[in-house]
Design brief:
The complex is a heterodimer of chains A (about 110) and B (about 140). Chain A has about 110 residues and is of the alpha/beta class. Chain A has helices at about 25-35, 55-70, 80-90, 105, and strands spanning about 1-10, 10-20, 40-45, 50-55, 75-80, 100. Helix content of chain A is about 40%, strand content about 30%. In chain A, α1 (about 25-35) links the parallel β2 and β3. In chain B, a hairpin with a 5-residue loop joins β4 and β5 (about 125-135). Classes of the chains: A alpha/beta (about 110), B alpha+beta (about 140).
Chain lengths: ~110, ~140
């Protein structure tokens, strides 16, 4: 369980292992902000190993996306399960984020 | 036969994940399909508990949250009650309208309403009841994984 930060092709990749919910959203937020502070501008959050997200998790993705856009960057998402995609579609957040079917697709053309 | 789980949680967000995992595991004998337990019920219960702890009880560690779960063959009902003054759920804006889409809060109640079959509040709004049904024609066809 947790968040792993790595870099691939100039993109900061954050893997979400387990859940992104009210209990760990601040840890996630801080990890991304730390990378933003270091100069990262291209972010890909990969959900291959993610069970579920709650509204707090969705909210932190929205707030981070806004913050990253303010400095000229972008936050993309990849590898949403059917369950997770349902949550993004219900909340219409699928219209806000660029969502790739795979990690590789998310890295391509970033 | 109806089964009932009742417990009081400390007002600690760290309790939510374990509580939800426990309740979902106890629901495995219920006929509600696996996906509905995994997604609809799990996410809605997280939302109800976090709303109770953050907004209802105002993050006050001296307060508690009462959780009551009723299991029947074709449905799961959970009632979450906090010690706060309550709120008017009718005043919560739709988070999917363009003016709300960029807000980082306000999706919890919406998700509960979208994912559960019934969402009811008591008169003062400090207790929410979530009900998930299995369609009649699927009760005998689908069992949890």
């Amino acid at each position: 369980m947790g968040f792993q930060v790595s870099e691939a092709d100039g993109v900061t990749v954050i893997d979400v292992d387990g859940q992104l919910i009210v209990g760990n959203r601040q840890e996630f937020r801080q990890k991304v902000l730390d990378e933003l502070e270091k100069g990262g501008r291209k972010f890909l959050v990969d959900f291959t190993e993610t069970g579920y997200i709650d509204s707090s998790g969705l909210g932190v993705l929205v707030s981070l996306s806004k913050k990253i856009r303010e400095v000229g960057g972008e936050l993309r998402l990849s590898t949403l399960s059917e369950d997770l995609r349902t949550l993004f579609e219900l909340t219409k957040l699928d219209t806000l984020f660029r969502i790739a079917d795979s990690r590789q697709d998310g890295l391509t053309d970033f | 036969m109806e089964k009932q789980l009742v417990f009081e949680l400390p007002n600690d967000l760290r309790c939510i994940q374990k509580t939800v995992d426990f309740v979902v595991s106890r629901c495995s004998s219920c006929d509600v399909v696996a996906r509905k337990l995994r997604l609809n019920f799990r996410v809605s219960l997280v939302e109800a508990l976090s709303n109770a702890m953050i907004y209802g009880n105002g993050r006050d560690p001296s307060k508690q949250v009462l959780v009551e779960v009723f299991l029947q063959g074709g449905s799961v009902t959970v009632r979450v009650t906090d010690e706060g003054p309550g709120f008017d759920p009718g005043e919560v804006p739709d988070p999917t309208v363009p003016t709300q889409l960029l807000e980082d809060r306000g999706r919890g109640l919406f998700l509960m309403r979208e994912l559960m079959d019934e969402v009811r509040f008591n008169d003062c709004g400090n207790s929410v009841t979530l009900i998930l049904h299995l369609p009649e024609d699927r009760i005998s066809e689908e069992a949890p994984a």
